[in-house]
Structure formats: C-alpha cells, structure tokens
Design goal:
This protein has a five-stranded mixed sheet with strand order 1-2-5-3-4, with helices on both faces. The protein has a single domain (27-170), classed as Protein-Tyrosine Phosphatase, Chain A (Alpha-Beta Complex). Helices cover 47% and strands 10% of the residues. It is α/β, with parallel strands linked by helices. It is globular. It is built from seven helices and five strands. The longest helix has 23 residues, at 2-24. Strand 3, helix 3 and strand 4 form a beta-alpha-beta unit.
C-alpha cells in the first residue's frame, strides 16, 4: 500500500512540474503582429513597432513595461506613450536614433530600464536596435566576451548593426 501511495505522489509531482514548465514556456509572440517579435527570455519580449492591438494583447498577457527605442519623430500613427499608459503599463522611451544612437550613453539608460523585474516588451522599428542594446549590455555589464554578446544580440534581434556593435566592444 505504501508503495502505491509513493508512486501516486511521484506521478502527481511529475505532472505538476510538467504543467509549470508549459506555463513558463508560454510564448505570446504569435499573438503580436509587430515585425520580428519573439520571446527573448521569460521577462523580455522583443521586436518591432507594436500596433494598438498588439499593446492590448501585451497587457492581457502580463506585460507591465514597454521600452521604446525609436527616435523622436520616427513614429506618428498614434501616441504610443498615451496608449501604453492608458492600458496601465509603464512606458520608457530611450531614443536610439539609428546607428549613431547605439552608444554608451544610451546603453546606460537601457541598462537602467531593463533592471525592472516586470515582464517587458522592448522594441524599435524592427528589433535591430533592441538586439544591439542587449548585446552591449551583455558585454559591458554581464562581462560576456564579444562573441557571446553578439550571440545574445542576435537572439534578441540584432541584424544590420552587428558591425557597429562589434566596433564599440572592440574599442573598449
């Protein structure tokens, strides 16, 4: 009898741990229409410019903070800040104006912004600047080597800015 109880308890524990793995792995990127959206980590979803419907889907999926890396005047279809705040999320704008905006000053702002423990959506127009900033953060703050940082950058959206990111890291 004791053996049957032990087997039942073990089976229940395995089932519960399996359920928690599926909960952890919930990827909402397929619910978002913005370019190149992906679940980068449990905390961060990354990608391109969200629509108003995307922002609503993000808040319904537990996103608490939106970090916008687009430069001033780069997007004018709606007031993203107003929409985000109306939905009850935190809005952080760090204007990373093209390749020139991928720099140590903006990295300091980015690093401070991602220190929150909230589920966060980080975006620019396509996700390229997002990946650049995550790569630089990994290199300068998490002490990843250049290759490791570039891999992190690519996983979070880095494409065309790779040479700029590599130059900033190698000049360090």
């Amino acid at each position: 009898m004791t053996n049957l109880i032990q087997k039942t308890i073990i089976t229940l524990l395995v089932l519960l741990s399996t359920c928690s793995v599926f909960t952890y792995a919930h990827d909402i990127s397929n619910e978002i229409s913005a370019k190149n959206v992906k679940q980068y980590t449990e905390q961060f979803i990354v990608g391109g410019q969200p629509t108003e419907a995307d922002l609503t889907a993000l808040v319904h999926n537990g996103i608490k903070t939106v970090i916008n890396l687009r430069g001033k005047g780069e997007f004018s279809e709606f007031s993203e800040k107003e929409k985000v705040e109306a939905l009850g999320m935190n809005y952080i704008s760090i204007p990373v104006n093209g390749a020139a905006g991928v720099n140590k000053e903006n990295l300091a702002l980015f690093t401070a912004a991602i220190q929150n423990k909230n589920k966060t959506f980080v975006h620019c127009a396509s996700g390229n600047r997002v990946g650049a900033m995550f790569a630089l953060d990994a290199y300068y703050n998490d002490h990843a080597n250049i290759e490791e940082a570039v891999i992190i950058g690519k996983k979070s959206g880095l494409t065309g800015l790779e040479s700029k990111v590599r130059k900033l890291m190698s000049d360090h």
